Each structure stands twice: as structure tokens, then as C-alpha cells.
């Protein structure tokens, strides 16, 4: 059984997609042992509560220094003994000590086809604004392992989505979520839970 801790900051629609996939059996051999948000008002926390999943908020704002926060944050994650940590719209920088402790056991969903529109400053709606202002015709989403860089870790799954003529950043964001994110994030967790993902020479090898 793969024990998963999900980290969130906002609405939690990706968390919901994971919960639904676990409950419907499309993710197998997996249980969500806890949800952590850095934002006490995150709707994602209510989603966890509604499904009887342990949850808590831990915010950098409540600590005197980033070092102190990082230490407490790692302790909070460790308490739920995760086999896999899933960043589902989590907007806090992961402490380097957590990355090395959980090497190739932290995954992130990013709303673009990496290496386009990723890295520092590219998150949420900003990604879709940048894609529309560049005029690309195809966008998408990526699930990848988290390493010390920003959106640089081994890529596990990607899915493309077409841009349409009248798209606004909000409309495009919703289409990317519906057609890509909510599909590939649960799929990646199921693949990991069933031993189908390995990392070799810095690349994720997926046997489907
Ligand atoms: C999602 O679109 C996710 O891909 C993005 O934040 C949104 C969270 O939505 N993550 C990033 O931009 C990370 N760089 P949600 O809270 O409804 O799942």
C-alpha cells in the first residue's frame, strides 16, 4: 500500500481528482494519509475534511525564520510516514532537506508542457497568460519528480491540450485541468503505486 501525503495551497481540484480516483478504484494500492496546506483558508482542506482525511495547515508566516518553518514542515510531513508526497498546486518552495530525504518520492503537477512555460514565476494562471501571449497552439500539463531545481526533475507523464481561438487564461486553465491535469496526476500515482515508474540516469522510465 502506497501511503500518500498531498500538499496544497488553494482550491484543491487536483486533490479532489486524486480522492475520487482512490475512492472509485482507478488508483489502486494507495491511501491518502494526510493533506497539508500552507494556507488555512484553502478550500482543499475542506475537501480533505469532507472525505475523512487527516489535514492540517502549516504556514511560513507562523515562524520567525524560513529555517524554523522548514524544520517544522518536514516534521509535519514525516509524521504521516509518506511513501509518496504529491504537490497538487502547492506554492511553497520545498526545503532541500526534504528533497534529499524523499529523493524520487515527491511528484508535482505543472500546468504546461515542460520545458515550456515553467521555472521561477510560472505558476497557476501566469502559465496560461504566458502561453496565450506567445500564441502557442498546443499547451498541456506535466507530472514530474521534484529535484533541487524549479520544474527540472524527471518527467513522468505529459498530456497536450489544444488552444482555441477565444481562449482567456481562465478558460484555458480550466481546459488544461479537465483534459490533462485531473487525468495524468491520478494516473501517475497509480503507476507509482504499482511499481511501474523507475528513475534511471535522471530520467523517469514508465512501463504502462
Ligand atoms: C493547478 O493548475 C496546478 O497545475 C498549478 O496550480 C493549480 C492548482 O489548482 N500548479 C502550479 O502552477 C505549480 N507550479 P488546484 O488547487 O485546483 O489543484
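^ C-alpha cells above, recovered residues below v
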Amino acid at each position: 500500500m502506497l501511503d500518500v501525503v498531498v500538499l496544497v495551497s488553494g482550491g484543491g481540484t487536483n486533490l479532489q481528482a486524486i480522492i475520487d480516483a482512490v475512492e472509485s478504484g482507478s488508483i489502486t494500492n494507495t491511501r491518502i494519509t494526510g493533506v497539508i496546506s500552507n494556507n488555512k483558508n484553502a478550500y482543499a482542506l475542506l475537501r480533505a475534511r469532507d472525505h475523512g482525511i487527516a489535514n492540517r495547515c502549516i504556514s511560513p508566516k507562523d515562524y520567525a525564520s524560513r529555517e524554523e518553518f522548514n524544520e517544522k514542515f518536514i516534521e509535519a510531513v514525516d509524521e504521516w510516514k509518506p511513501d509518496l508526497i504529491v504537490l497538487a498546486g502547492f506554492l511553497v518552495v520545498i526545503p532541500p532537506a526534504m528533497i534529499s530525504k524523499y529523493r524520487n518520492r515527491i511528484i508535482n503537477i505543472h500546468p504546461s508542457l515542460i520545458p515550456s512555460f515553467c521555472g521561477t514565476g510560472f505558476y497557476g494562471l501566469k502559465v496560461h497568460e504566458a502561453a496565450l501571449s506567445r500564441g502557442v497552439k498546443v499547451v498541456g500539463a506535466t507530472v514530474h519528480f521534484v529535484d533541487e531545481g524549479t520544474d527540472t526533475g524527471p518527467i513522468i507523464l505529459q498530456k497536450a491540450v489544444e488552444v482555441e481561438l477565444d481562449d482567456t487564461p481562465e478558460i484555458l486553465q480550466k481546459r488544461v485541468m479537465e483534459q490533462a491535469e485531473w487525468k495524468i496526476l491520478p494516473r501517475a500515482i497509480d503507476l507509482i503505486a504499482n511499481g511501474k515508474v523507475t528513475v534511471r540516469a535522471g530520467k523517469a522510465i514508465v512501463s504502462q
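The chain has two domains: 1-102, 109-208.
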